[in-house]
Amino acid sequence: MDASSTNVLLRSRRMRPWEPVLWLLAFAAPAALPSHALIINEIAIVALFAISLDLILGYTGIVSLGHAAFFGMGGYAAALFAKHVMPDPMVGLAVGIAASTVLGAVASFTVMRGTDLTRLMVTLGVGLIMLELANKLDWLTGGADGLQGVVMGPVLGRFEFDLFGRTAAWYSLSVLLVLFVLARRVVQSPFGATLKAIRDNRLRAMAIGIPVTAKLAQVYTLAAALAGAAGALLTQTTGFASLDLFEFHRSADVMLILVIGGVGWLYGGVVGAIGFKLLQDVISAVTPQYWTFWIGLFLVVLVLVGRERLIRPWTWFGGRKA
């Protein structure tokens, strides 16, 4: 790598001036808006889940409809560990990440070959297999009734989970920040540059000597680990694990989140999670039966008009802001 490329990578790793402000506001939100701490916790978890999918979709070009398999694996592993071994949240989080990492490493062999449509169906199949296993192994997972009686200990041995969800929100935000920084380091490294090369033209990447198969396996495993962390956070902060963790709508929702926020940009997962959860919360409060219709209509308009033009109305007719 030449000096100019190295300088570009170093500049891209620098934090923008607005980023510390954004994260400070996020951590201040549970204290400033205590009645909304629970939804802040949900946004942080969904944002981490979206970032994990963006690693393979936005930076590698792998479309997955079964990403909930890793989300559910992390969630169940953390819940089972807390119920049968020890309730420490940090250790349980590590167990959830480890379990989903192993599953991701095994499942990565399914995305090595074939066309995009083949990989799409295979990822969907992995998710359905995990859903059925969780349903059949009811002696372990609780089956359709879910895994109940999950009690978590205090975070770091000091911070008890409260009913208002403030501790849960700060816990999830902290994990989101740490893993966001990790993901950012990955995509802005030479490894991330090879992923983009594979995304743009896999045959050309192979021709210049990039080990495409190994890179796909590595990024798929990393994405599974982050998805497992999100699932572990959900079960730890809610004290419950159910088959819903593996359901198809989890994979579909996180895909919609990236449509809203944008792919190939890690903050797209954060922005999309905020927009999606707020839309869901507001619209379902107004029309509980038809909130999915209005979110679907919003997505149709977003795709037809375009994200930039929707955010900046003055560009609708090709004009510029004065």
Give an overview in words.
The chain has 322 residues and is mainly alpha-helical. The chain has a single domain, classed as ABC transporter involved in vitamin B12 uptake, BtuC (Orthogonal Bundle), CATH 1.10.3470. The protein is 71% helix and 0% strand. It is built from 15 helices and no strands. It has helices spanning 3-13, 18-32, 37-57, 68-84, 89-107, 116-136, 138-141, 166-187, 190-200, 202-207, 212-238, 248-261, 266-286, 291-305, 307-311. Helix 8 packs antiparallel against helix 11. The longest helix has 27 residues, at 212-238. The chain is globular and about 55 Å long. The N and C termini lie far apart (42 Å). Residues 312-322 have low confidence and may be disordered.
And the CATH topology? Answer: ABC transporter involved in vitamin B12 uptake, BtuC
At the first level of CATH, what is the class? Answer: Mainly Alpha
Alpha plus pi helix count: 15
Count of beta strands? 0
> What Rg do the Cα atoms give?
20 Å
Please state the overall shape, judged from the principal axes of the Cα atoms.
globular
Give the SSE order as H and E letters: HHHHHHHHHHHHHHH
Quote the distance from N terminus to C terminus. Answer: 42 Å
Number of spatially distinct domains: 1
Helix- and strand-based class? mainly alpha
DSSP strand content: under 5%
pLDDT below 50 for ≥5 consecutive residues: which ranges?
312-322
Q: How is the biggest beta sheet arranged?
A: none
Fraction of residues in H or I helices: over 70%
CATH architecture: Orthogonal Bundle
pLDDT average, as an integer? 82
